[in-house]
């Protein structure tokens, strides 16, 4: 599917609505960043009701970044620290951390380059759910992830990418009338 040119584990979280907490979650691999370790990174914000890119532009101090050790993966202690920094209530932090660990394990197991959950929501009973999701996978992992790539929805992709794929090529559209094959 579409491979992210960026990288790291990003969790974008917006919290604190009246009866529910909605937590958009975005995960991808952070690779060529001068400010972060090369590898997975969780990024989030407790600023609610805003797109994470808007939060980063308007309130850069509100963004929390937590690198994940590429060898050890995301452990419960690190996920609990992130849940705390994301301002989950104390009683929901273990549940939020468990969801983060599960998402990271899925991210690794399926060769994802990005996972976006929007929203991750807390219902009125205090249960956290991962709701609507968008996944991108590393095209180079297609031979390992045949079941995943069998679900590819070409209607969601550029027709030129589909045409290139028919010839085992990757096509990346760039601005203007330039393309990269």
TrEMBL record:
InterPro entries: ATP-grasp_succ-CoA_synth-type. Pfam families: ATP-grasp_2 (PF08442). Residues 38-121 form the ATP-grasp fold succinyl-CoA synthetase-type domain. It comes from the Eukaryota. SUPFAM superfamilies: Glutathione synthetase ATP-binding domain-like. Keywords: ATP-binding, Nucleotide-binding, Tricarboxylic acid cycle. PANTHER family: SUCCINATE--COA LIGASE [ADP-FORMING] SUBUNIT BETA, MITOCHONDRIAL (PTHR11815:SF1), SUCCINYL-COA SYNTHETASE BETA CHAIN (PTHR11815). This is Succinyl-CoA ligase [ADP-forming] subunit beta, mitochondrial-like. It comes from Priapulus caudatus (Priapulid worm).
């Amino acid at each position: 599917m579409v491979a992210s040119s960026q990288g790291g584990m990003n969790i974008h979280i917006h919290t604190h609505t009246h009866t529910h907490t909605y937590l958009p979650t975005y995960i991808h691999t952070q690779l060529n960043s001068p400010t972060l370790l090369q590898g997975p990174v969780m990024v989030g914000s407790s600023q609610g009701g805003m797109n994470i890119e808007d939060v980063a532009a308007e309130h850069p101090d509100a963004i929390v970044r937590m690198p994940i050790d590429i060898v050890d993966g995301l452990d419960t202690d690190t996920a609990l620290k992130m849940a705390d920094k994301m301002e989950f209530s104390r009683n929901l932090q273990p549940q939020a951390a468990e969801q983060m660990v599960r998402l990271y394990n899925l991210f690794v197991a399926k060769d994802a380059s990005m996972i976006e959950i929007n929203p991750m929501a807390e219902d009125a009973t205090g249960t956290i759910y991962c709701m609507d999701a968008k996944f991108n996978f590393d095209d180079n992992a297609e031979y390992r992830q045949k079941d995943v790539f069998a679900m590819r929805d070409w209607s969601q992709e550029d027709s030129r990418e589909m045409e290139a794929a028919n010839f085992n090529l990757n096509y990346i559209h760039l601005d203007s009338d330039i393309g990269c094959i």
